[in-house]
Design brief:
Elements (H helix, E strand, L loop, with lengths): L2 H41 L7 H64 L1
C-alpha cells in the first residue's frame, strides 16, 4: 500500500470511528430525551401540562426525534466512509499487484537483454 493511500485510508478510518462514537452518543441522548418526555407526559396530570410545561414536553419530543434522525444520518455517513475505505484498499491492492507485475516484467526484459 502506498504511503499516500495508507494515510488517506487511516484518516478515513479515524473519521469513521468518530462518526460511530458520535452516533452512539446521539442515540443515548435520544433515549434520555425519550425517557424525560415520557416521564413528564405520564407523571404530570393533564391539568398541569399547559403553558411552559406543555411546551417543554413538546420540545423534548421534538428533540428526541431530531436526535434519532441525526443518529440515522451519522449511520449513513459511517457506512459511506466504510465503502470508501474498502474501495481505497482495493485500489491500493491493485496498485501493489500492478507494481509487482511490472517489476517481474522488467526483470524478464533485463534477463533477455543480457542473454
Amino acid at each position: 500500500m502506498s504511503t499516500l493511500q495508507g494515510g488517506q485510508s487511516n484518516g478515513l478510518e479515524a473519521m469513521r470511528q468518530k462518526t460511530k462514537a458520535v452516533k452512539v452518543e446521539i442515540e443515548q441522548a435520544s433515549d434520555h430525551a425519550a425517557v424525560i418526555g415520557t416521564v413528564l407526559a405520564q407523571e404530570l396530570p393533564e391539568e398541569l401540562q399547559v403553558g411552559e410545561v406543555a411546551q417543554a414536553i413538546e420540545q423534548t419530543e421534538n428533540l428526541e426525534q431530531r436526535l434519532a434522525q441525526s443518529a440515522e444520518t451519522l449511520a449513513d455517513v459511517t457506512a459511506e466512509l466504510q465503502r470508501e475505505i474498502e474501495k481505497r484498499h482495493a485500489v491500493s491492492d491493485e496498485l501493489t499487484a500492478s507494481r509487482a507485475h511490472a517489476e517481474r516484467l522488467s526483470d524478464r526484459l533485463s534477463k533477455k537483454g543480457k542473454a
